[in-house]
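Figure 2 data, in text form.
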Amino acid sequence: RDRAATVNYGIYAASNLIPVNLDYNDVADWSVNYYNVAPGPNDISEDPQFVDVTTGDYHLKDSSPCIDQGSASFAGYDAPTDDIDGETRPQDGGYDHSITISGGGPSTRSTCPSCSRTIEENQA
């Protein structure tokens, strides 16, 4: 007998009767990104740019669209203050989608050539 093609789901809710609040997810490259649930207002569908999936290194590259995304709290829950490696998050003090390099002096703003993010650099 014929079998239907396998469907891979990004975010799957077995029923649409139970409300699910989503926000700040990166759901990309699935057969079906969302099933029985709507994307959150800040969800994206982009390549997260992991360092090396083949070796299991799921750290994000500096150019990842996921860096500095998110919120300090959502639906009454606070985000962790450090990541799985024990690094403080967010890295530069805010969820402002920019990179901050601190040297203590006057600051300059530019754009990261590899990732199109705003870079604020404080000169020493």
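Caption note: The CA atoms of residues 55 and 119 lie 30 Å apart.
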